[in-house]
Each structure stands twice: as C-alpha cells, then as structure tokens.
From TrEMBL, chains A, B:
Taxonomic lineage from the root: Bacteria, Pseudomonadati, Pseudomonadota, Gammaproteobacteria, Oceanospirillales
Domain D-serine dehydratase-like: 292-397
CDD domains referenced in this protein's UniProt entry, alphabetically: PLPDE_III_cryptic_DSD
UniProt superkingdom: Bacteria
Record key words, sorted: Lyase
SUPFAM superfamilies per UniProt: PLP-binding barrel (SSF51419)
Protein name per UniProt: Amino acid deaminase
UniProt-listed InterPro entries: Ala_racemase_N (IPR001608), D-amino_acid_metab_enzyme (IPR051466), D-ser_dehydrat-like_dom (IPR026956), D-ser_dehydrat-like_sf (IPR042208), PLP-binding_barrel (IPR029066)
Family indicated by similarity: Belongs to the DSD1 family.
UniProt-recorded Gene Ontology molecular function terms: lyase activity
Keyword Lyase assigned: yes
Entry keyword Lyase: yes
Length: 410, 410
C-alpha cells in the first residue's frame, strides 16, 4: 500500500475530518447522528425501562457501534444484546462484558468464538429452541470444560424461531437440565413476529404466555440460576412487553430485560410510525423518541427540468422505504441557512444514485434555487440497514459541527 | 480493547481461518467466491474486450476488493472504474494507477481526495455534465495547480445523469476548453438507463449516438488528448456497446473502454438472465460467464413442519431478489456429499434470518433429512449489494477449501 498522504489510507468510503464549518471537510455522502437527539433517546429509553422495573439490554445489532454501546452502558444499560457470535466478539472486544445473544448459537466456528469469550470472562447468554442444538451445545461446551448459560426461546405459530408451546418448552428444559455444560438461565421471546388483526392484543397475550412459561419453569425447579432472565421486545412494542412484565411482578424473582435497538437513533419511517402507537397507548410518556440519524449527500446532476440526481444510493442508506429529503444547505454555507425541499420526492434509488422529482418552483431562479453541490439531509427507514452501510459515522451538534467520528464493527 | 486471544480482534463479522476441511473453522454466514469460476470470468471478459478492439476497465464498485482489482489488472485490464472519490482513493492505495470515475466529482472534500491522488501520480478521469460542475472543478483544480481529465457524459431522456443532446455536449466542451485546469479527454455513457419497448435497438442507437458525439468533438478539435476515451457498458449489454464501437472503427483514434463490473463473479439472478440475452445474440461466444459468488449459512431452527429458519439475513446477502438455495452440506462433512435443496424456497428475509419453505420430504427421516446446523449455499442477485455486506470474502476451491481471504474496502 503506497503512502501518498498523511491522512490514514484506511478502507473507508468517506473522509471524515472534524472542522469548525458545516460538515466541511467531510466527504459526502456521510451518515450523521445528532448528539442532542441521541442523548435524549438514550436517557428516555433507560428511564422507561427503569420506571417499569426492567433492565435494558439494547440490541446492538442495530448500530454495531462500540461508541454507542458505551453510551448505552453509561446511561445505565444492564448489557448489550447481539444477534451473532462475531457481533458478540466485537462488542466484548470493546468492553461490553454482559452479552445477550438473542439468537441460537449454531455452528462450531461460532461456538468457538463464544467459548473464547466465556473463557475471557464474558457473562454470556444465548437462546435455544431445539433438542438438536441443545445436544450439540452441551457436547461442545463440555469438551471445552465450560458452562454455557441458555434461555429457552418461546416463538409463535407462523413466526420465526422458538418453541411453539409450553410442552415443548418443558421438554427442552429437561433436556438442558440433563446437559452438564448448559445452565438454564431463563426465557426469551420476540414479539415482533406476532401477527394478526389485533397485534396489540396478540402481543399482550404473547407476553403473558412468556410470563406463564417462565413461572412454570421456575415452579418445576428447572431454572438453574438465582436471578433468571425473562426477556423480549424490539423497538415497536416495548411498552406492551414492559407493562405485562411489570403487572406480573416479575421483578420480584426474575430479571425482566427489554431489548429495543432502533430506539437509539429512532428513524423517519416504520419506527416513527410505531412510536406514534406507543404514545397513543401511553400518553403519559412525554416527548417520545426523536429521529437522530440522517444521511447527507450532494446534488450531482440536474439533467432535465424537474429531476435532480443525488450522489446517494443503496450503498449509503436503508431502502425498506425510499429516503426522505428533510432539509437542504448550500455547500460551504452555514447550518443556519436551511433551504427548502418542499415537494421533493425520491422516486428511485440505484446503487450509487437517488432520483429526486422536483416541484416546478425548485428550478426557478432565486435564493433557494437548487444548485449542483447542494447538500441534502435525508431521513431513512430503518436504521439497522443504514448503519451497516458505513464504517464510520459522524456525531454532530445542532450546527453540523462534527464532534466525534464513530467506528462501526459490522 | 482487551486482548483475549491470539486471533485478530478486528471489526469483522466473520472469523475466517483457512483449514483443510470443508469451510471448517469459518464462522458462518460467509461469502465465498469459487476460484475456478472467477478465473474463467476474468479471462472470458478480458478476451471479449480484446477481441472487440476495446480496453477493459472493470467497474470496481461491484466488489471494492483490491485483491480482485489486482486479478483484473493481471488478466489485462487497462484500469479500474469506480463510482466515488473515496472508492478511487481505496483503489489507488492498493496499487491501481489508472482510475476511471464514471461519475460526476461533486463536493470540495471529494475534489480534495482526487487532487491528492493526481498529485501522487494517478491517471484519473471523471465525468462532467453541467456548466456549474465544470466551473467548480475548473476553479478548484486551478487553485491546486493541477489539471483534471474529464469526459463529457451523454445521458438519455428520462435517464440518469448526462447531457441530453449534441448541442449541450458541444457547449459543455467549449466550457471545458475555457477552463485551464480541465482537459477534455473523451466521452462517457451508460446504456443501462436506456429503456423502451425494444431495449436492444435503443441501446444500439444510444451507442451510435455516443460514437457520433465523440467524432463531432474530435472534428471540432475540442478533445485535448492524443488518445481520447470513449466508454460505456455495464454487465448486461456490453456486447452491443462493444459491437458498435468495433463497427465504427473507433479504435483507430479513440480508446474504446468497456466497464462491466458484475461479470467478475456474475450472479444467480438478473445478470444470469442478461447473460442469456448476450449468448442468444452472440452464439459465437462460448460457455459464457459462471456464477462464482455464493453465501453459505446454517440452518438455525426447525420450529414447525415445512419451515426452516436460516442464519442468513439482509445483513449478509443482496435482496433485489430473494436468495436461492443451491446446495446443502452437513456441518463437518465433505464437499463431495451434496444434499438436496429441491423444492426449498426462501419466502422472507429479515435482517439476520431467512425463512425457507420446505417440501414435505425434507423433514422425512433419512440420509438427506434436514438438520439444524446443515450448511446451505445460496445464490444472490445482484453481486454489488452482496459484496458490500462483507469486510472479508473467502476465496475457495471446488472442494470448499479456503485458499485466500480477501478484504473489501467499502
């Protein structure tokens, strides 16, 4: 690798340098998190969990950003949830000691990663839902001379992973009990796969099913730890899960753990919609979460009236929904001078380009006339699939000064 | 960062270690390129270009994998095409000296990246399609005391970037001519945005339009280099572009440059379909490209009859089309023992999970019965959005021995 500059030649699609000017020196497109909204969200969700007698283990797969894990822990999180063994390894390497892998641990190469973490002192939990996996884990960790804490997963018919009924859970718990290397540490579920005409009622019923299953395991003496976990919740229905756990007085024996991930930066699409549902159900929850993540990109071409091509593509932003233009700035200008994007609509996203349909007035001469090089802030949905496009994320203040550059670990 | 193992604690979602066994030691999911098909594709496309009197500048944005850039150059490529300034920087840092940025260079932070590359000796080209951008580039590079080689982009009505007609091209060329810091080095186009009832005819017409525009620029003495470039082509219609450039005898003065990217690993979806079109038009082209990229993942849960949940998600594989199950292996088994995936269908892809609908016989007891931990090879479409999910890619031989681990630079 040749050395042609003092800047680091790391493998990174963006050059990010802090600067006193508005995103000046930042190669665009770039992902930007606003510090104020981030701090608000961190504090808001931690307080929500505490107020409901629950611990918070934010799902780290959303961001895979150790600097955010640290902020979540500093705000009071009990641990970090992850989805895969390599994610757990990355989090532990950056100082996260309690890891809740809300997923089955499959494959000996992945088991080897987790064995190393346990040997190094990690407080690790994963989930099981089958005899075959329990036997394999039991054999593997026994051979390594280690004990593995597992949670039984309760699923739903037509859903994703997880035991489908109480009988299956009890039989699997007996199987875990028979494996010397495995420690049954509680019950896990994910309400995001509950469907039906009345999801709210379905999710409440599912949460009560979790409670009953956990109590039955406990009643039969199958749980092998003094403070067993009961855990569920993504970022859309966490209020219902927290309420049921709270109403069931689970905190007296169990440790209820909530695991929302997207809350940390919220979004401009499906989670904003979901949040409206939370606040409708719970008007006592003030202010709510705030979208904190945006992707900034520049107008690259104005080839036809009514069409702007933006240097922003599927490589840069999630596309469960098309990105939403939020605001516009002139390159080199101030963050105070916000130009309009009224009537702008992203109509198509290619790998490296976005097509924006402009209203007629956008191309009229004048102060706010669109120009090549104009910087446009976009909102995205959902955050998980925006974070994973980036190796670095800018943390910025309200005036778009970059105050920290955070590294992701996908 | 704590040190708990001799293995590198890099930010990487997969542990990849070479091993004499079948993908043994590789944390799955993992992306795998088959060396034989890769070598075939490299040689095939290089020969295609040479046979048509054209140079090959493979689009590097597809893979952003310097080890593949090197193989493309070793096979005879004239340079590497890229889409953004940071991509150019990454390629140059890994030894690519001729960089064709088939995109507008917008934003001073991106101009600064390119200025550094030119200062370091890069042979760099980018495209222009507007007076505003030409003026900005002229001003910026003049201030840096550098000269920037630009190609005028020819677009199509209703397409993406690019001048829409000959008059616009000629006017823009005069503007480039008036900028001391800019050197007009040829013409660029991308036929992938040509639409209509008869795309084949439309693309041929577009290619001839490119030829005529290039010749007009040359005739008017507006091109400032002795061997100007004329360049187009993605991985779907490269045969038509190459034929028109060949028929026009452009090689006598111009340097015709083809820029397909996806060909290097081909795919199991849209490009396989496109390739059938190429071979139908050109039966003389023997054998054709071969899909070389697969993503391997394991069965994680079998929660209901007829349903397998695979540890493979949107974080791991492109999803323009749902992944296609290709083959199955038993974990720890041999690559020779291929198990059936007949009738398997991916019905849904979440961030970290794939849902597979199984035919009845898949869960019947027997030799090929599906088991938790079974390793499934998936084909994807398209490759660009599969590569960008990975920081490392395994290069494997036919027996699924990992022979090289390649790093990506997204």
């Amino acid at each position: 690798m040749r050395d042609v500059t003092s800047a680091p030649w790391n493998c990174d699609k963006g050059t990010i340098e802090t600067s006193p000017d508005v995103l000046s020196g930042v190669s665009l497109p770039a992902a930007v998190i606003f510090e104020g909204s981030l701090a608000h969200n961190l504090e808001w969700m931690q307080r929500f969990a505490t107020d409901h007698g629950a611990r918070l283990a934010p799902h780290g797969k959303t961001t895979m950003t150790p600097a955010l894990f640290q902020r979540q822990l500093d705000a009071g999180a009990w641990g970090i949830t992850l989805a895969t063994a390599p994610q757990c390894r990355a989090a532990f390497a950056h100082g996260v000691e309690r890891l809740l892998m809300a997923n089955q641990l499959v494959g000996e190469a992945n088991m080897a990663i987790i064995a190393e973490l346990i040997e190094a002192g990690a407080d690790f939990y994963c989930v099981v839902d089958s005899v075959a996996n329990v036997r394999h884990l039991g054999r593997y960790f026994a051979a390594r001379g280690l004990r593995l804490q597992v949670l039984i997963e309760l699923g739903v018919d037509g859903g994703r992973c997880g035991c489908r009924d109480q009988d299956e859970i009890m039989a699997l718990a007996e199987m875990v009990d028979s494996e010397q290397a495995l420690v049954l540490a509680g019950l896990e579920g994910y309400e995001g796969v509950v469907h039906g005409d009345n999801p709210e009622a379905g999710i409440r019923a599912y949460a009560w099913h979790l409670v009953e299953a956990a109590q039955a395991l406990d009643h039969d003496g199958l749980i092998e730890v003094p403070a067993p976990l009961i855990t569920a919740s993504g970022s859309a229905w966490y209020d219902l899960i927290a309420e049921v756990f709270h109403e069931a007085h689970l905190g007296e024996h169990f440790v209820p753990v909530l695991r929302p991930g997207c809350y940390v930066v919220h979004d401009h699409g499906i989670y904003r919609l979901a949040q409206r549902g939370v606040l409708r159900r719970r008007p006592d929850l003030e202010r709510g979460l705030e979208p904190a993540l945006e992707v900034f990109a520049q107008v690259q071409s104005l080839p036809e009236p009514g069409l702007a091509v933006i240097a922003l593509g599927k490589r840069d932003i999630g596309f469960d929904q098309l990105p939403q233009p939020l605001r516009r700035y002139r390159e080199g200008g101030s963050a105070d001078r916000v130009l309009s994007v009224a009537g702008w609509e992203v109509t198509k996203l290619m790998d490296q380009h976005a097509f924006v349909r402009l209203p007629e007035e956008a191309s009229e001469a004048g102060n706010g006339e669109i120009r090549i090089g104009d910087i446009v802030a976009f909102g995205a949905s959902h955050p998980c699939l925006t974070f994973d496009k980036w190796r670095h994320i800018c943390l910025a203040d309200e005036r778009l000064n970059v105050i920290e550059v955070m590294t992701t670990c996908f």
